[in-house]
Amino acid sequence: MRAEIISIGTELLLGEITDTNATYIARALRDIGIDIYFRTTVGDNLDRIASAIRLGLERADVVITSGGLGPTVDDVTREAIAQATGRPLEFHQELLNQIAERFRRFGSVLTENNRQQAYAPAGAVTIENPVGTAPIFILEDQAGTVIVLPGVPREMTYLMEHVVLPWLAAHNDSPSVIRARVL
After folding, report:
1. In this structure, are strands 2-8 and 62-66 parallel, antiparallel, or unpaired?
2. φ, ψ for residue 54 (rounded to 5)?
3. Confidence of residue 9 (pLDDT cuts 50, 70, 90)
4. Residue 170, C-beta contacts closer than 8 angstroms, at least 6 positions apart
5. Staple 67 to which of 8, 56, 96, 133, CB 3.0 to 4.6 Å?
6. How many C-beta neighbours within 10 Å does residue 70 have?
7. Which pTM value belongs to this model?
8. Listed residue (40, 50, 46) closest to 7, CA to CA
9. Is 119 strand, coil or helix?
10. Rg (CA), the chain
């Protein structure tokens, strides 16, 4: 299985923060024998993210994204994946209910902005994020699979370990071993 990692966020491009997520994801994929062909970083721009997703699907079996799932105006990963795969976005009431419950437990108020976190491209399998507010999804398309993770490192790590790695292990038709030695 060939993979591409796409990190999403203008703050990454501008060097404001270090992209530790891509490093973590790359090591985790290596450890289960998945070949990482490319790592891409793209800013918070709908058309550029969609272009990166399309390109990733052309050259890999699975594209894993990190970032752009929050409630702000520049969090457009959902829309970009819908655009890249030619699918409409669908609202999922159960996701909004999960987000609202999380806010209630935190003692916070759910805002209208958080409603956008309950959308996913048509046909995507949505997955609750038990450690944050941004649900994730896995979209299997004829061109390949897109797995969408949040950019918050603690959330991304949890979801990689508990959802993504088991899913990849179950769907990898040609498991291999990748050995690395640092001298």
Report:
1. parallel
2. -60, -45
3. very high
4. none
5. 8
6. 20
7. 0.92
8. 40
9. strand
10. 16
